[in-house]
Structures are given as structure tokens and as C-alpha cells.
Amino acid sequence: MKNNLLKTALRARHAAPALSLLGTAAKNRALLAMARAVRAENDYLVSENKKDVAAARRKGLTQGLVHRLRLDEEKIAGIADSLERVAGLPDPVGRILETRKRPNGLVIKKVSVPIGVILIIYESRPNVTADCMALCLKSGNPVILKGGSEAISSNRALYRVLSAAARKKGIPEGAFEFIGTGDRGALKFLLGLNQVIDLVIPRGGEGLIRRVAAVSKIPVIKHFKGVCHVYVDKDADPGKSEDIVLNAKAQNPAVCNAMETLLVHESVAKKFLPGISGLLREKGVELRGCEKTRAIVPGVRPASEEDWGAEYLDLILSIRVVKDLEAAVGHIEKYGSRHSDAIVTENKKTAEAFTGAVDSACVFVNCSTRFNDGGEFGMGAEMGISTDKLHARGPMGLEELTSYKYVVLGNGQIRQ
Amino acid sequence: MKNNLLKTALRARHAAPALSLLGTAAKNRALLAMARAVRAENDYLVSENKKDVAAARRKGLTQGLVHRLRLDEEKIAGIADSLERVAGLPDPVGRILETRKRPNGLVIKKVSVPIGVILIIYESRPNVTADCMALCLKSGNPVILKGGSEAISSNRALYRVLSAAARKKGIPEGAFEFIGTGDRGALKFLLGLNQVIDLVIPRGGEGLIRRVAAVSKIPVIKHFKGVCHVYVDKDADPGKSEDIVLNAKAQNPAVCNAMETLLVHESVAKKFLPGISGLLREKGVELRGCEKTRAIVPGVRPASEEDWGAEYLDLILSIRVVKDLEAAVGHIEKYGSRHSDAIVTENKKTAEAFTGAVDSACVFVNCSTRFNDGGEFGMGAEMGISTDKLHARGPMGLEELTSYKYVVLGNGQIRQ
User: What distance, in Å, lies between the first and last C-alpha atoms of chain A?
Assistant: First the structure.
């Protein structure tokens, strides 16, 4: 088993030099061929996906999970569209990030280059397979795909269709590698290959990500979870506050950039909380609150210490009335996950104080936390969202999949 | 012991928010006061340094190491100059790296911010203490200094003088922390504090860096060693080739960006090697070579397989005659350390093929590998040199000590 895993990783490693030198046109031709192949193989993909859906039903997975897993003609067309969209994005490799001319005549160019072999570990949605293959190809990085067992047939089918189409367009062997089965021992072995693999991106539940981060010898870019806040300031516009709170909580509660805790300035709590509580309850949201919240809104369950740090990923919201901006920032600092936090205020100074003090990947003013997303940021697609501070923070698109090298051009200069 | 280490690290952690919001003027005032304090305390610093020098002599350290350790009035003035130079550099925090306007009216700003608590582990030269304090203060990062035992008195004295001067100018407690003694257990404990410390930068011998990288739970930016190459191409200018080879090997052989292996195209080997060998030997360089080299230059010791991967850090050079550019690139790929590699050629296409194919932090054309240096790159000073591909590659100056956050400004936008 280990022998096969090592061979797989080495195939990716050996593809790296050729892939890094591949021209934009060659990469885009392959991406467009991959999109055509996905459309042409619709029936095959649907029939392979049915195996996963049937297995999920047998295992009793929730309706929501089964829905995420299922591939139909519309979703498959969406995958093809996404491949075409990546073909249309600018090539992130070979950008001149900076040019310095030195007094001694040296010209120092900082040039973007691929990172190298990327291992992506993900759960559930099969379209991640195609997105990651597209982003890694466009950024010149070999990718090793390790999807979840619940989507194994769909992922393998997509991998087969896409890699065959790419090979026909001259993409080197090893550009895409697929790891189908494998227990935790297999994952641990892979995560020890720091001589072969350059970066690991785990996507999925907090448990998976913590396991990966704990054992990996390879650098990991990740977010553990999204405990996101909206702070309604004393100078907030009431209409915007309602729209943003409802959207951040209820538009898609199962995702990492959904709000989990609402913070309200004490001077507007009595005015704001009754109305928003009614609207949230209409959407089916269960409310848990601090004592002050409970004194204002009847029927709110008391929030425990665990509630403040909880990533519900569900129609549940904790609410806290805070004394002022500082208390709101302090709460976010203590309980947040540095993912996505928003303030609603018409006061520019308060907004600036909030965005300066809140140490999160994305800080929002007068808009929903749900906008922390590569697509919404205009990156085309995303490889994941990072709450780390090194290399990439926030949504990871094509540029975040590159490193750089310095190319220094001289005319015989030597160091004095 | 562990309790004290944890307290030290937490003091740094707690200083991070205030330090990240410190204005440019406040940071520069402190840096200039630190420079004045170093000059004023010249005698104290020299007398504390004498303890280290005496201990080094007792231990029988080499002349070179004792020289690196010694602080005299000139070196102390150099430290003060360096502090002033960092005060004069642009503030790396709060730069707007990118602004995107989205069709829905959102304005997305990518803003540079400090990384957080930085642990620097270093050996030997006491001026590293001052450089790191200056760079971390200017970039808004609390720093924990862990210097080598051989410079303990000098480092502590510099730390005392500099941090007292900074405190008087309002720099918060915890901005600078110093870890004096401590065995490997202490280091391992520190490297496990990934909830408190954000980044580790080890500087020193390969053994130290490998130990740190092996046990650290905190992200590490590093280079293990510099096995640097100069490739003299068939289209090389002979005069430039001689200057660059001599400089890269002999100007300062003890440093990571010095050349360790010379590669020469076979079609110019007979012309080039005899002359350069004489010049290198005049500088005291011992030559080790492949069979072809030895057939051309008498008295060259045979190079073993270990020689090709060796970081001599000394007046020793291995020489290999190669068939062509591809063989040169292959040698560098196999034996190099991805640090600094140079080509000498007048052929633009060959130069481009070399800079494209060689996967090193800095690739040089017609100049010495010795230019891989923050000062030479115009960064003012450097925190270290990275051969990693994530976050920072090549010299690490002020900008490389920052991360970024996204600040998203809206007017009530919600996600559809």
C-alpha cells in the first residue's frame, strides 16, 4: 500500500517541471477539452454517481448530504462551465510581481511560479474534484486528489473523464493523481512525504482538518471552522442590519461563512432585537441568548459558554448584547475563529476601528459574512478558504496557488 | 521552566493587538531611540561581549567564529546605523495590496497586517538580535529571541539596552521577549506552542534548522543549506565568468550564498578551466573535480558523490564538466539546495531556459550568487533567507514579515 502511495506521489513530483513550463494556450486547450468531455460523458457520470447516492441512502445520510452528493445534468453542466471559466482566467504563472533596479545595474525580477505538488483532502461534493483539477492545472501544479469515501465512485469517474481528456491534449502524466481507497494509515503516510509533496489543503469537517494538521510533516493551509459574527453597532442602519443578519444566518446555514453569533450594542438592543428575533424565527432559527437578550426577547434559551464558541452549521443562533465596540471586538477575539466577521454601522470611525482591531481573514462592513468566497471575490473558483496567516488568507484562488522566484539579470556584477 | 517559557510567549501574544495598531511615527521614534541607546551604551555592550569572546577562546572556537562574535565600536555603530536604516524604510503594515470593485458594489481591499508572534532561533552573531528586533517592531510583530549560548551575554546586553529604549517610547511590554538559557527540551516546548506563536525562523547551521523543522508544530520558514552553483555556458564571456566564479567562491566562502560547485560546458572546459583553476588556487581554494576536469587540470582531487551535495562553507570547490545546459540543470536539480544558482552566458535564449528550468529561490544571470541577500536586494535588512515555497522565498525583509486581511466595504449587500 505504502509502496503504491509513494509511486503515486512520485509520479506527481516528476510531472512538476514540465507542468511548470507549460504555456497558457496549452493549459487552456486542455481545460476546454476537459469541459467538453464532462458534457459528453454525462450519462456515465450520472450512473457512477448513483452508486454513491445509493450507498449514502443505505448508510442513512441526511437529506442535505445526499443532495450535496448527487450529480444531475444541471450540476454536470455546472462543472463543465466552471472548467471553461478557469480557462478564461488569467494565467497566474509567470507574472512579474515586482522589478527592482539596483544602483549596481542589477535588475531583480520577482516572478510567480507554481508551488509544486499539492495534496487536496476533501469530503462530500464531487465537483471539488473538477474544480481542484482545473485550478491546479492552470497554476501549473500537479495535484493528488484524496476525496471522501462517500463520493468515491463519482470522484473516480470525474477523475477518469477529466484526466483522459487532458492527456489527449498533451498534459503530462502525473499532473493529476487519484487516491481512491485508504485508511487513516494511508493518509498519515502521505502526510509524511514532505520531500515529495509541497502543500496540503484539507477541506471538510473540523475533525478531519485537525487530524491532518496534527500529523502532517508537509505545510498545511486550512481553516478549522467558521464561528462568524455580525455586530450591530449603535449607529447601525436598522434595515441593513435586518437584511444582513437574516442573510448571514439563514441563506445557507450549513457553510463556514454563515453567522453563528449576533452581537448587538446595548443602546439599540431593545429596538432591534424583538423585530429581528421574529424574522429569524419565521425562517426557523432557534435563538439562544445572554441574560440581557432573554430579558428583551421572550422564549430565548440561555446560551452557555459552549454556545459562544460553537459552529452550529444549522438554523441556530446565539445572541449577545454588548456594552460597546470594544466588548464586541473582545468577544470576537475570545470566541471567534478568525474567519469572517461583520459590523453594521453608519459611523465610519467605528467601522475603521472594527476592521483594524478584528484579526480575521475577512472583515466586512455593512454586508453579509456570506461574501467570503472565491467566486464572490471575483477569483473565478476557489481551492479553499484559509484562516492561516502565512502564504494565503481568505479565499484561495489561482494566484494563491503560486509561489515566486527571483530572477536576477546582470552584466558581470560581483559583490564588493 | 515550562511555566516561565509559556509566560514569556503569552506576554508576546498579548502585545500583538496593540503592536499591530501602532502608527509608523511611533515605531520610527522608538527605532531612533534604540539606535541612540546602542551608541550611548557602547562600553557596556563591549564589556558584556568580552565575556562571550573569552568563553569562546576557552572553548577553542575557530578564529573565524570568534571574529563573528566580537563586538567593537565599529560593529556597534553598524548596529545603530542598521536600526536607523529600518526607521527609514517604508512601513510594511497597512499597505493596500489590491482593491477589487465587484458588480454588486462591494469594495474588497487586501490590506497588509502583521503576522503575529515570531520566534527567531539563531546562532553566533549578536547583531542578529538588533536586526530582528528592528524588523519585527517595524512590521508590528512581537518577537521572541532565542540566540545561541556562545553569544548569550552580548545578546542579553543588546536586548536590555534596546528594549529599555523602546519601552520609554511607549512600545508595549511583550513586543520583545528574550529566552536566555534553555536546553533542547526548552526549545521543543516552545516549538509546540502553535496556539501562541505564529511563525518560527531558524537561522544557523543545518543541524539546528533540521532539528527545529522536525519537531515544530508552528509553521517554519527556513533554508537548510546553500549548495549553490555557477554554470559557465558555451556562450559565456570569459572575463565575466572568471570574475563571477572567483567572487562566488572566494569573496566570503563561509556564507550560504557562496558557490560550492562549478559546472562548465564541455565545449569551453579546455579553454576556461586551466586559467580559473590557477586563479582559484591563488586564493587558496582546494579543487575537487570530475574525471574530465582532472584530465584538463593537473592535481585536482577526484570529487566523490558526497562532494556534489556538500555545503563546504570553506575554500573548497567541486568542478564538473557537463554536456550541455540540460545536464547542468539536471545536476542542479539533483544535488542543489534550491538556494542560489547562476548561469554565465551571452545567449539570451539559454539564459531564459536556465531561469525557467532551475527551481531555486534566486536564479542569477551573469552575476554572482553572493547577491542573494536582503541588503543587496534593497530590502534594507533581512530576517533570513528562505528556500521554502510558501509565504516567502529568497531574502525575507519587512514585507515578508506581513500577512494580509480582506476588508470588504458594503452598503447593505447580501448574498443571493
Answer: 55
Q: Is-contact A383 A132, C-beta < 8 A?
A: yes
**B residues 107-146 closer than 8 Å to A (CB):** 108, 113, 115-116
Q: Looking at residue B283, what DSSP letter applies?
A: T
Q: Which three cell numbers stand for residue A48?
A: 457512477
Averaged pLDDT for residues B254-272: 97
Which residues of B, range 299-358, sit inside 8 Å of A by Cβ?
333, 351, 355-357
Nearest CA in chain B to A357: B17
Q: B18-28, pLDDT tens digit by residue? A: 999 999 999 99
> Hey, is the C-beta of B370 within 8 angstroms of any chain A C-beta?
yes
Chain A residues near residue B108 by CB distance under 8 angstroms:
377-378
Is the separation of the CB atoms in A242 and A368 below 8 Å?
Answer: no
Q: What dotted CATH number matches A228-366?
A: 3.40.309.10
pLDDT(A319) > 70: yes
* CATH fit for domain A2-222+397-409, picks 3.90.1310.10, 3.90.550.10, 3.40.605.10, 3.30.1490.110: 3.40.605.10
Give residue-wise pLDDT tens across range B169-211.
999 999 999 998 767 788 999 999 999 999 999 998 899 999 9
Q: Is a pLDDT exceeding 90 seen at residue A136? A: yes
Question: Do the chains contact at A243 and B412, CB–CB below 8 Å?
Answer: yes
Put simply, whether A251 touches B (Cβ < 8 Å) is: yes
Which residues in chain B are contacts of A403 at CB distance < 8 A? 389-390, 393
Element (H, E) at A343: strand A340-344
State how far the alpha carbon of B329 is from the alpha carbons of A182, B201, B263, in Å: 37, 29, 10
pTM over 0.90: yes
Which of A198, A363, A410 minimises the CB distance to B389?
A198
**CATH tag, B2-222+388-409:** 3.40.605.10
CB contact under 8 A, A21 and B356: yes
Query: Grid coordinates in use for A330?
Result: 473582545
Q: Within an 8 Å CB–CB cutoff, is residue B365 touching chain A?
A: yes
Cβ(B290)–Cβ(B320) under 8 Å?
yes
Task: For cell 495598531, name the residue.
Answer: B21
